[in-house]
């Protein structure tokens, strides 16, 4: 069994990005600049935005966090987004979700300029991804592709089960892995809450992407011998630790690892790859190219 | 076995559209108007455009065909598209593909206003479809959904195999049928040229969508008893008929029909549903709403 070590790979990728940034500076080009918009005081959102600032710092990007109270008007927020869209000083723009209920997330997403949409949430980027055109791919699927590529995991003609059909993980993952590309050319089955024979589908999967958000849902009895297992789930469960919780993936790591050929740990697998994928997208946005 | 009779259903839907148009006229609203752009003298393209004109005539739409020689400059063609985009008199705009090699089809598609893109080929419409947002869905998958709905075919939790991953049929079909909707909520497997165990996947399918363009590829040995079989393939093969050819689907109709619960004939199945779906999209465009 080989560990798909997202921590190691993301560190290498960050070093590469940092070198690219140094070169950009040496060439007199502007430094990539990520602006994050944060509305309200959600604890998890604060953490994510802090991570993004830290990552930007590590790779040498400029980073701005614009904070607004959760009472902000939708129109005011959209105006801020339009202002950032027009600001040539900003390469990439993300709006941390969730937003307060009185604000339409879809409206916010569609107001972000597709050229700065480094989260890949704008329908234009989603459509280009679907059609196999250059686009910004959302960070989790983009990070998983990087990880599979790094380890040279064979994908062509493999059966792949994607558990979960969310717009930001399961659905793009299924589409990307079924495209004529590498990583890709898989025969993909997309599973969800209505799937009746989930275990059968999993047992036929050479590659299994678990993105359900259901802690330790996938056991060894659902895994084909030699399968590649990618665990996207990260759920906080109460535990007698200093923080008061521990992180659990969708996969029962120990027993599944015993059968798998490759497997991502939680934490240290998909999480850091997601973070570095956002940095890659931001670099691409600064270079006025798409990341894929 | 029940025939999924696209000819009958499309006729009923056309009657409904015609009534809607009469009502629009009675209400003093403008008549839906489809403009087709045809470049060069491709025989199949001429036929398709003639069908579209005939369909428009039947449902009471206005129809315009703009013909250009295959020597037209790309920029000149894009200017024509921009002019039609700006023409409030036109509800829907399609550019018949293929185009001559010196013209970028992608550039042409992306120049069509998404609000008039009744073919649903623009990446913005593809993305909205993917994300489950209101959009124009390309005519073949839209027509198939109408057909399944008309016959009340159960889809929730069913295993569905989609054979073919094209951007205009297989891929949207797979995404639509896996969405939380009706028809939808299927466990979808998308198969293609690299799929190794195609027969196994087909044998597990409660619903099989064949969109390979490979005449009579799917035989009874690949079909589960009681499966719903939708045949998208239409290939002309030479034959001793008046026209010199006959149309073959991707499915060996007689032997597969003997095992299926529902099946589309070729011709008279998906073909007429595709045609009426374009009319539905055009009506929706005229009403300034999306068709789905």
Please outline the helices and strands.
The structure is a homodimer of 292-residue chains.
Chain A lengths: L1 E2 L2 H21 L6 E7 L3 H17 L2 E7 L5 H13 L5 E4 L9 H7 L11 H9 L7 H12 L8 E5 L6 H8 L9 E5 L6 H6 L3 E4 L17 E4 L3 E4 L6 E4 L4 H5 L4 E2 L6 H17 L6
Parallel strand pairs in A: 1-11, 2-3, 2-4, 5-6, 5-7, 7-8, 8-11
Antiparallel strand pairs in A: 9-10
Task: Please explain how this structure is put together.
The first copy, chain A, contains ten helices and eleven strands. Chain A starts with a strand and ends in a 6-residue tail after the last helix. The first copy, chain A, is an alpha/beta fold and 292 residues long. The first copy, chain A, is globular and about 50 Å long. In chain A, helix 2 crosses helix 10 (270-286). Chain A folds into two domains: 29-113, Rossmann fold (3-Layer(aba) Sandwich), CATH 3.40.50.10860; 139-270, Rossmann fold. Chains A and B meet through helix 5, helix 7 and strand 6 of A and helix 5, helix 7 and strand 6 of B. Strand 6 (187-191) of chain A pairs antiparallel with strand 6 (187-191) of chain B.
């Amino acid at each position: 069994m080989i560990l798909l070590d997202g921590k190691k790979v993301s560190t290498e990728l960050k070093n590469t990005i940092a070198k690219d940034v140094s070169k950009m500076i040496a060439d007199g080009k502007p430094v990539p600049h990520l602006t994050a918009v944060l509305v309200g005081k959600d604890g998890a959102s604060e953490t994510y935005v802090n991570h993004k600032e830290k990552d930007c710092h590590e790779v040498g990007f400029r980073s701005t966090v614009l904070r607004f109270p959760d009472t902000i008007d939708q129109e005011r927020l959209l105006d801020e987004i339009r202002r950032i869209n027009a600001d040539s000083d900003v390469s990439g723009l993300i709006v941390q979700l969730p937003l307060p209920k009185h604000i339409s997330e879809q409206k916010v997403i569609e107001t972000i300029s597709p050229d700065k949409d480094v989260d890949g949430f704008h329908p234009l980027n989603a459509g280009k991804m679907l059609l196999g055109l250059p686009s910004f791919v959302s960070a989790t699927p983009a990070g998983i592709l990087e990880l599979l590529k790094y380890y040279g995991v064979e994908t062509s003609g493999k059966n792949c089960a994607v558990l979960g059909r969310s717009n930001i993980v399961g659905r793009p993952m299924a589409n990307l892995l079924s495209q004529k590309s590498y990583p890709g050319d898989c025969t993909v089955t997309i599973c969800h809450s209505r799937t009746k024979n989930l275990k059968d589908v999993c047992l036929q999967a050479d590659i299994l992407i678990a993105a359900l958000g259901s802690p330790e849902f996938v056991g060894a009895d659902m895994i084909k011998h030699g399968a590649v297992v990618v665990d996207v789930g990260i759920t906080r469960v109460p535990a007698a630790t200093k923080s008061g919780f521990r992180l659990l993936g969708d996969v029962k790591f120990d027993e599944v690892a015993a059968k798998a050929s490759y497997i991502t740990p939680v934490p240290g697998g998909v999480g850091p790859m997601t973070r570095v994928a956002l940095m890659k997208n931001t670099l691409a946005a600064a270079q006025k190219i798409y990341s894929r």
